[in-house]
User: What shape does this take?
Amino acid sequence: MGVPHGISKRRRRNIGVSPVARSLLFSPKKNKDWWPLLRMQLLAYRLPTPTAEFRFHPVRRWRFDFAWPDQKIALEVEGGIFVMGRHSRGAGMEADMEKYAAALVSGWKVLRISPKHLTTGQGVAWLGRLLTPLPLPHPAKDRLS
Assistant: This one.
């Protein structure tokens, strides 16, 4: 069965692909687009929920994509690295270095990952080694309530 003419190549690739699979195949443009996938992975690993767009510096307007302020751990999803985006050009790289140096001096651990690390699950596996997991429910306490 063929695809009708007049449909773009991108739309042809999407025919028969579920919304969940499509979200894994195509790179989101904003942090909020990463949130559903990251949340699902964090739940699977029993890791705490982060604060999105967390402003960590008292003077500068620097923000982390996702942060766990109580543990001083941050996650930065570095997009546009293969298309000469902001993170892969000289001025953008220097600005990022300044931001990450200030975070380090302030006691933050910053995990920098690419979108691929998030979609493959490698990023959340690394987070699992950094973050304190949520406590397991106590079976005896559950029976008493």
